[in-house]
Design a protein that fits this description.
The chain has about 500 residues and is of the alpha+beta class. Helix content is about 35%, strand content about 20%. The protein contains 17 helices and 24 strands. The strands form eight sheets. A seven-stranded mixed β-sheet has the order 18-19-17-16-22-23-24, with helices on both faces. The longest helix has 24 residues. The relative contact order is 0.13.
């Protein structure tokens, strides 16, 4: 039998990627491209939807050409991408407006208003999740109030990966892992709920929600136009795909309840899969997991590695020459400086709230406790520690609802840094395992394509055949105790600044 391949397409908050894998999960070829982020007003983060689709096509074509794999041997395609945000397709067969990315905060007042008037509590009885400013319901409510002229033109309400799949196939679907985490799906009924939309004042948009499908369902085939633009074979089947946090989880073989999944990327995602939802309101989100019969229990906020990327870009560019002379990237060189600084000994506290916080939508980032004696390495280390501390706040809420996990499976930018992997182990007091691929999101959705194509019976079997652990780091429990003390200082700083945010 000829070897078969699977294409995973990943549209995150910063990059578009296309990655081709074989049936054993080995990467064959990959291409990526950055699509400019548009910030037309404070709190707005958008992307041109046509430019985004064009970037996807270019990446797919490069992979098709560079891999040397005949298009006929690509047995399936699947998409993943950031959740939340909003991508609207119009009745005029064009984007209604720029796509809205998950870091957008323009609608921050709507969750607060809905908490105060009881709407959020009533919605929770159907969705078992809190309302976020970046979810479709908040953004649609904002649009209804501020851009009402656009609503009549809406034909389909998409997440980013459902939009890209629609452009590849011409068929409109909404996939459950995304939409069940957007306050759009009744988790008990596992479907749309007109009363739920009415709670948010959006009932008139009910018929703009695409039909729901699951991750491994076939959701169309590559069109002739897509084949022309990408080099794919017309008729290649396309799977439903999944929200990137689900894709990363299955690509780390988090397919049972043993381990926690932590993703340190643009958003800090902390999650586990379970047979039952957490209904007591103590966690941020419950959604439908890509593995049938399971839910995904999630704590998240935009407080993770995106803060480190911004800090490096803004303040560490002068290190590039030194880094190049040492044969390192600027991130690796910054890690070296941070590793030479005392771990937890210096009381510099970084609040990683550049793109929003985990407790107050108006909070802002801060470095507190610096004096003239501090070195660049100590400040860099404080930035890394602050991000891990914020993850730990989320992890604490998850652990209050489940047994202690065997390990943390770590993904995102942090998984590429030995120092950051060590920090996660020492701060959490748990072993940390890293998977042997750099493209977890693309691998997870490629696994869905392999299941759709019939080459694996389900995602658990696909994980068994396509996932390998690269390394395991055990915690230093003496350092765990020291970090527990520094976390207390971190929390005190965050609490002390709480009255300030409304004044800025």
């Amino acid at each position: 039998m000829e070897q078969r391949f699977y294409l995973g397409i990943d549209n995150g908050g910063t990059l578009t990627k296309a990655v081709l894998f074989d049936a054993a999960g080995h990467e064959v070829a990959q291409a990526s491209e950055s699509v400019p982020l548009l910030t037309p007003a404070p709190g707005f983060t958008e992307r041109d939807m046509e430019a985004l689709y064009a970037a996807n096509c270019r990446c797919i074509r490069r992979v098709a050409e560079e891999s040397g794999v005949p298009a006929a041997r690509i047995a399936g395609i699947s998409c993943t991408g950031h959740g939340k945000g909003l991508y609207l397709w119009g009745r005029d067969d064009r984007p209604v407006c720029p796509g809205i990315v998950s870091t957008d905060t323009r609608a921050w007042e709507y969750p607060r208003r809905w908490r105060e008037d009881g709407t959020a509590d009533r919605a929770f009885r159907k969705t078992y999740q809190q309302v976020l400013a970046s979810q479709q319901v908040s953004l649609l409510a904002w649009m209804k109030d501020h851009r009402p002229e656009l609503l009549d033109n809406i034909r389909w309400i998409f997440s980013v990966k459902d939009y890209i799949r629609f452009r590849l196939t011409g068929e409109a679907y909404a996939e459950l892992t995304d939409f069940s985490g957007a306050n759009l799906v009744n988790l008990d009924a596992c479907g749309y709920d007109r009363e739920l939309l009415a709670l948010f004042g959006l009932e008139e948009l009910f018929d703009r929600l695409p039909p729901l499908r699951r991750s491994c369902d076939r959701c169309g085939r590559v069109t002739a136009e897509t084949a022309r633009l990408t080099g794919l074979k017309e008729g290649t089947p396309v799977a439903g795909g999944m929200f990137d946090i689900d894709a990363c989880a299955v690509a780390m073989d988090v397919t049972d309840e043993k381990n926690l999944c932590v993703i340190a990327g643009t958003w800090g995602i902390n999650e586990y899969d379970a047979r039952e939802r957490v209904k007591n309101g103590s966690v941020l989100m419950n959604s439908i997991f890509c593995l049938p019969g399971y839910y995904l229990v999630e704590e998240s906020s935009p407080t993770s590695a995106g803060n480190h990327e911004w800090f490096t870009r803004m303040f560490l560019q002068e290190l590039r020459e030194e880094a190049a002379a040492a044969g390192l990237s600027v991130y690796q060189y910054a890690d070296r400086l941070a590793a030479e600084a005392p771990d937890g000994g210096e009381r510099i506290v970084f609040l990683p709230y550049l793109f929003g916080s985990n407790f107050n939508p108006r909070a802002r980032a801060a470095l507190v406790g610096m004096d003239s004696s501090h070195t660049k390495g100590q400040i860099i280390r404080a930035v890394l520690e602050g991000i891990v501390f914020c993850h730990m706040d989320h992890i604490d809420r998850l652990l209050a609802n489940r047994p202690r996990p065997d390990a943390i499976r770590l993904a995102g930018g942090a998984a590429k840094s030995p120092l950051w992997v060590r920090l996660f182990a020492d701060v959490t007091g748990l072993p940390v395992e890293v998977i042997d691929t750099a493209e977890l999101g693309a691998l997870g959705c490629a696994m869905a394509a392999a299941v759709m194509a019939g080459d694996y019976p389900d995602l658990r079997a696909a994980a068994g055949g396509m996932v390998r652990v690269r390394e395991r780091v055990e915690p230093d429990l003496e350092k765990t105790a020291a970090y527990r003390e520094k976390r207390r200082a971190y929390r005190k700083v965050a609490q002390a600044l709480e009255p300030v945010w409304g004044c800025l």
